[in-house]
Amino acid sequence: MASLRPNYGFAGLGNMGSEMAKNLASFAKTNGHSPVLVWNRTRQKCDSLRDGNHVEVADSIELLTSQCDVIHTCLANDNVALEVIRQILKAGRKGLIIVDHSTLFPTTSKTLQAESDENGISYCSCPVFGPPAAAKSASLLVVLSGQPEAQEMLRKYIVPAIGKAVIECGEDCSQATLLKILGNNCILGTIELLSESFTLAEKTGFDVSLFYEFIGAT
Fold this sequence. Notes:
This protein has helices spanning 15-30, 43-50, 61-67, 78-91, 106-118, 132-136, 148-155, 158-161, 173-203, 208-217, and strands at residues 8-11, 36-39, 55-57, 70-73, 97-100, 122-125, 128-129, 140-144, 163-168. It is 53% helix and 17% strand. It contains ten helices and nine strands. The chain is α/β, with parallel strands linked by helices.
């Protein structure tokens, strides 16, 4: 298990991941941790993140894994997550904690959890709700699942370092990813309903600005 003052890593610096990594770096600096070690398949994103942030760049996954106690990941899709996290597992050591913020299929998270267990590594599925603006302001809603001791350690900093609140989904990582899918389905359904309602307002000659005011007020 990670030390009392763990070294953090972050893999996957897309629109969400880069903002989350910056916030994690800010937390690390404020609390006396070593710089966050970042890795991305496109090196340019790492270099741009290094300017003005408490981070260092890892030239390889092997280096990232060898120097970190906790590695956060935010990867593009299931295939990328399987590829990158399996490289981490191959290079990793017992006691490492992987905190995966990717949006994956439940079966993928379950597979990665099982493979991590086989290697003595704790895999936590921690998908997040919120757009890049929420990632930037560390106001994401974080779903937390995985091995209990790893969860206990994450609860010490994931709020406020990355998010504003946590929903705990137990030890089975497939439950966290399933909640993410269900939540996204609700959000998409709401967007579709609003779109149709605005269209109805326009078609019936209703003042759309008044309807917008109504939505904002409610």
